[in-house]
Here is the input.
Amino acid sequence: MSAERFEFQAETARLLKLMAHSVYSEKEVFLRELISNSADACDKLRYEALSKPDLIGEAATFRIDISADKDAKTLTIRDNGVGMSRADLIDNLGTIARSGTAKFMEAAAGAGDSGGAPVDLIGQFGIGFYSVFIVADRVEVTTRRAGESETWAWTSDGTGAYEIAEGDPAKLRDGRGAAITLYVRDDEAEFLEPARLKHIVKSYSDHVPFSIFVADGEEETQANSGGALWRQPKSELSEKDYTEFYQSVCGGYDAPWRTIHYTAEGRHEYSVLLFLPTMAPFDLYDPARRGAVKLYVKRVAITDDAGLLPAYLRFVRGLVDSQDMPLNLSREMLQNNPIVASIRSALTKRVLNDLGKAAENDADGYEKFWRTFGPVLKEGVYEDFERRDDLLALCRFYSAAKGELISLKDYAEAMADKQAAIYYLHGEDLERLKQSPQLEGYRARGVDVLLMTDPVDGFWTGVVTEFDGKPLKSVTQGAEDLDALPLEDAADETPAANDAAMATLIAAVKTALGDAVCDVRKSNRLTESPVCLAAREGDADLQMRRMLNRDEGPCVLELNPSHALIRSLSEKAGDGAHQPAIENAAHLLLAQAQISAGEAPKDAAGFSRRLTDVLSTYAG
Ligand code: ADP
Here is the structure.
């Protein structure tokens, strides 16, 4: 049968071009990527063979072989794993069916010519196989799916197309798996040296749990330690061992921030090796919210997707190896498995405890972690009722008073006796929030406000009403509480408009604005600004309304009776002659309040006309 030609998807082709033309600081990572794919293929077949032992027959020892041919300038990585069918080849190597590709391209373009950055991106974006084009100008994949009778050869020079033809089974071990042959570029000849290859295997893939052999002439030597690192005692493992394992087996590409390694004994026996990353993976906010903790049973990898941790801990990478789950467990059966449920609960507790310890002992590290993963952890406050208090204790928020991240406990401890609630203000942008008129009355009374800028804050604050017995309140939702608290500096107590005049002004503004507001009232939260918007008591807070794009009708407009402008308007409000001026002022004040809340004035044309009128009085 002759070869058939296929075009790469446009995105894939662009990516390949980028791979081949980038300058990398650590080119050798391509080998780690190929070994990691081979190990996955062995894991897959070992799992499939549990229910179909014929797939492996007598050849049950999995291994990965690396051999170079200096004359032909080829490097071959071969495994006796699950292999690929023709359709698999097209699906897996012809397309990058990943939402992250576009993001990768953006990130890589952003990294520019800085050289090193794209390599970090390779693993991060899960495009491992294509990294072969960093060192090769042509690649041939010979493969046979375990249990099938046809062997295929996929070849490409990494430009626009690839070919699939019948392959030579003699290239495979045990008549299955894959042999990936790289036609190494002239200037990359170092990757044809057995000593160099052994060194790379040792440095990057030492703890891949299958034997990796490197051929040197007739001789073959195992270049890695192999074995199940997670079953080794902690005392025998170094930070370097853990990092390498994290990168070669757990799909990490950064260095782990924290490592959690232990064996649980008792009702269930299992080993746990988890890593908390330092950097966010590209798909952290993918709607699928997939986790990255693999389930092994008696050292056999069963699935990547056992739900061993709740979705809000999806950034945790690693594995759990159970001693007492049945090996013949189907992936479907895992969903309601009581052992999985029990492991999940124990693991969650362990991770949250570890984060708690880190928060205490490594404040800087924790703050960095929080800035990267805090928004994900906060999803748990919303959805994990049982652990809500533990999660709230781990949360950090920007304190308007202190100008740094603090915990709710810190906030509560600094509260004045008469302060009735924990106050927060939610919006999109920290700098804008800091300027918000909503904060003025709080600042003047020495009351701290937590500024929240993550979309998820709008959700959890909707279900959490208190912390440690203290109510949690958005400053946009009513500010009656403030009356009970004295101003810090009595000199701030500027003379306010008298109540009767204020009532007249409020009535006049209400009439002028009609349906554009749901109420107009006196404000006690303002000191410097004349006006601000507020939510009706009991309504969603302002930012939440914006996020949900829910038109709950107009807001409340609050007037600051101590502001000179409002005072002078109030004095004129009773006088019919000033009615047109009051009306104009009412509209302009509403627009001003909308602008400082981060909204556009609803009546832009009217706003512009009125402002021009006012400015014209300056022009004389
Ligand atoms: P990833 O490993 O992140 O899925 P890759 O681009 O490295 O991405 O590989 C794409 C897919 O090709 C893999 O998911 C796997 O299905 C298949 N594949 C790659 N190498 C092998 C191999 N040695 N044996 C079997 N399948 C493989």
Notes: The chain has a mean pLDDT of 88. The two ends are 91 Å apart (CA to CA). The first helix runs from residue 10 to 21.
